[in-house]
Each structure stands twice: as structure tokens, then as C-alpha cells.
Specification:
The protein is an alpha/beta fold and 140 residues long. It has a single domain, classed as Transcription Regulator spoIIAA, CATH 3.30.750.24. The chain has 5 helices and 5 strands, in the order ββαβαβαβαα. A 5-stranded mixed β-sheet has the order 1-2-3-4-5, sandwiched between helices. The protein is globular.
Length: 140
């Protein structure tokens, strides 16, 4: 993971996590195996706590397939972030992936979704009262 927090001997995974104010933006560039998903989940939760993030966007636009394990893992990750006080929005689900998810009965539960990154940021702003500004910046 480009964040530089992987353990010795662990290969990097195809996810980058960037901070924008009190939000985190995680971009998934390729399908993740079980170990990579676990590392991604742990790192995202660690960063939520470290930066006291109020919102998370998970961008899956680079994925052209998603299996039931992947969709369940995203749903679980959104629930984990909520337990840490952050709202999660998943963006970039391709139409073919959405169609397949519905046909196969895969469900993201009550996890919010948007078409793209900009729409996701607008939704987070609406839900958090404008959390793109860091708490320090807003208090001045």
C-alpha cells in the first residue's frame, strides 16, 4: 500500500489512501485477495483513528468485476468505519458490476453509493456538514 505502513516482507497492495481534510479517499486499483483485503481494512481503520476522519470514500472504478466476498468485505468495512465515527461512501461501481451484483443477490446493505468521486465528496459534505475542511481550519 502506498501509505508505507506495511510490515517487512509484505507485498504492496493495489490500494492508495489519501487524506483530504477530514476525509480519506481510498482508491482500489485491482481485485484484492483475502490477505490484501485484511491489510487494507486494518490500514484504513488505523488512518481513520490517526486523523480522526469523519468520512471515507472507497473508489472502485478500476474494478470491472466484484465477487460476493468483495462486496461483503466492502459492506463490512463500511460498518467498521461507522463504528469509528466515519461515514463511508462507495463510488465508481461500473454498470456491468452493478447489474451482476443485483442478478447474483449481492447486497451492500445500507452503505451509501455515488457515481463518482465528486458526487461522493458532495454527499459526504452534506452528511458531515462540510467535513472537507480539517477541524483545526474550521475552528478559526
Amino acid at each position: 500500500m502506498p501509505t508505507g505502513n506495511r510490515s517487512e516482507g509484505e507485498a504492496p497492495i493495489s490500494v492508495s489512501i489519501l487524506r483530504q481534510g477530514s476525509y480519506l479517499i481510498a482508491s482500489v486499483y485491482a481485485a484484492l485477495d483475502d490477505d490484501e483485503l485484511g491489510r487494507f481494512q486494518r490500514e484504513l481503520i488505523r488512518q481513520i483513528m490517526a486523523f480522526r476522519s469523519r468520512g471515507v470514500i472507497i473508489d472502485v472504478a478500476a474494478l470491472d468485476v466484484m465477487d460476493s466476498f468483495g462486496s461483503r468485505s466492502l459492506r463490512d468495512l463500511a460498518h467498521m468505519t461507522r463504528l469509528q465515527g466515519a461515514i463511508t461512501v462507495i463510488v465508481g461501481i461500473h454498470p456491468d458490476v452493478a447489474f451482476a451484483m443485483v442478478q447474483l443477490g449481492m447486497d451492500l446493505g445500507n452503505v451509501r453509493t455515488e457515481l463518482g468521486l465528486e458526487e461522493g465528496l458532495v454527499l459526504l459534505d452534506d452528511l458531515t456538514g462540510g467535513g472537507r475542511l480539517s477541524p483545526v481550519s474550521r475552528s478559526r
